[in-house]
Amino acid sequence: MIETRGLRKSFRSRAGRETKTVDAVRGVDLKVAEGEIFGFLGPNGAGKTTTLRMLATLIEPDGGEATIAGADLRKDPAEVRRRIGYVAQGGSTWDESTAREELVLHARLYGIGKAEAHRRAARALDAFQLTEYADRKCKTYSGGQRRRVEIALGIIHEPKIVFLDEPTTGLDPQSRAHMWDEIRRLRADGMTVFITTHYLDEADALCDRIAIMDHGEVAAEGTPAELKREISGDVVLVGLDTAATPQAATLLDAEPYVNKLETGDEGVRLYVEDGATAIPQVLRRLDHAGLDLRSIELHRPSLDDVFLTKTGRSLRES
Amino acid sequence: MKLARDTWLIFERQIQLLLRNPVWVFVGVFQPVMYLLLFAPLLKPALNAPTQAEAYKIFVPGLLVLLAIFGGLFQGFGLIAELRAGVIERSRVTPVSRIALLLGRSLRDVVSLIVQAVIITLLALLFDLRVFIGDLLLAYLMLALIALMTSAVSYGVALKVKSEDALAPLMNTVAQPVLLLSGILLPLTFAPGWLQGIADWNPFSWAVDGTRALFAGDLGNDKVWQGLTIVAVLAVAGVVWAARQFARSVR
């Protein structure tokens, strides 16, 4: 459904007299299959939105190519526009307009006739449970209602693919769960959904496949389960005082059962085959060296561990 | 065909939103009426006009051109609000004609200007202003072209600077010399030679002269076709440039 090769974009920013070139996206290769929810996971500034805006024809790539729903992004952006929907992160509704007016106008901008536009608006309002507020001004809506109007706008022309930029950012937990259901419903209707997110749980629970993005590049790609499986075994978190951390890290790194070790503010993080047998050994080793440990915790690898091993940083910290 | 349809869609929405805001409509009419009632009475003695009607013949066309220039130049502010709300970006992901995004908005500005102009003309009729309907319609055409140009330029600049803080001083800096050098408030016939020399390079000065000639019933005056031509060429250039800004990347 989407295939990109070497998609690039850099921006020039001026600070005083100097102009600096920032490589926002440096060569992204992606394949998104029909009918899946594909997620771009990464911290702010990783290049997710820039990539999305390129795919949605809003900014022109500096290099690379992409085919979207069968249309060539560089050669025929007008055709790409007809086949995709795009919902921006910052919103797209006008305070003084009503949801119905927005939907009808937006449908008509896609070349849909007046009567059909009204029919589709009514259907969309119904599907997104907005009929009750349909003729009130957008400024009276709650955050969740407004986001639903925006998603309805993005799919009013029945595109093959819809791009959603951070669809749940700023929503309360209940609206968020509601939004996940809406997104799954789009997939059930046969649409391909491409979302960006910086929430680990969202990527894990909602997406069929994800690409982890960092510093303008795809660091890893696969289903959440596959990615987690790549980190075989368990994770042991050892809580230590800052002063004790370097010594403990050196000691534990030398142990045969530790596959990989990361140090952080809270202590060290060990990747081991079997956490249950590793813990007593860790305790013994540290006790032997006279190091006090504050806590010890065992857990299954999360997407954050994947992120950490791929990028050397935790998504929670960045 | 698609351009006409898309332009109409944008225009229809803009007019709808404009009418929904009664404050704006009130301000748009109130301001020029104030000029007419509170400023114009000074003109008969100042211009040495034989009658009040003569003074209005000079002042009303100037006032109308003034409204066209200012009404247009400050439309960019509304666009910046739309940019911020994401409405422009939402339009740009659709296949809608980029020229229509501009023209639909500029045509709203032209229509609201013409409505203002009609109200002022009707009021001036009460003060014994007399003008032939044919000449008046040509004068309105001139005003429409001016408003089309200034609003297009304002939209284009708004898309470039993307902030009210930059747009306001920029537009004021442009508007002030343009206003002073066009003989809008007082005809430049009183001006010293060097000032008239500079004013000759101000397209709005030609537009004002042309509009005054039309109000004076002097259709054959060269200033009429010259003014119309200059303004028409500039309007086309402004529209083409601004439509390009709509097609470019907008954040």
TrEMBL record, chain A:
GO cellular-component term (any): plasma membrane
Protein's membrane topology: Peripheral membrane protein
Domain ABC transporter residue range list: 2-240
Main location: membrane
Gene Ontology biological-process annotations: daunorubicin transport; doxorubicin transport; response to antibiotic
Keywords, comma-separated and alphabetical: Antibiotic resistance, ATP-binding, Cell membrane, Membrane, Nucleotide-binding, Translocase, Transport
Annotated compartments: Cell membrane
Record-given protein name: ABC transporter
Source species of the chain: Micromonospora sicca
Automatic annotation (TrEMBL), chain B:
Keywords: Antibiotic resistance, Cell membrane, Membrane, Transmembrane, Transmembrane helix, Transport
Domain called ABC transmembrane type-2: residue spans: 23-249
Chief site of localization: membrane
Lipoprotein among keywords: no
GO cellular component labels: ATP-binding cassette (ABC) transporter complex
PROSITE patterns (UniProt xref): ABC_TM2 (PS51012)
Domain of life per record: Bacteria
Membrane topology recorded in Swiss-Prot or TrEMBL: Multi-pass membrane protein
Residues passing through the membrane, by range: 21-43, 63-85, 106-127, 139-158, 178-195, 224-243
An example Gene Ontology molecular-function term: ABC-type transporter activity
Entry's Gene Ontology BP terms: response to antibiotic
InterPro entries reported in the protein's UniProt record: ABC2_TM, ABC2_TM_bact-type, ABC_2_transport, Nod_factor_ABC_transporter
Keyword Membrane assigned: yes
Subcellular location: Cell membrane; Membrane
Protein family according to the UniProt entry: Belongs to the ABC-2 integral membrane protein family.
Protein name as annotated: Transport permease protein
Organism field: Micromonospora sicca
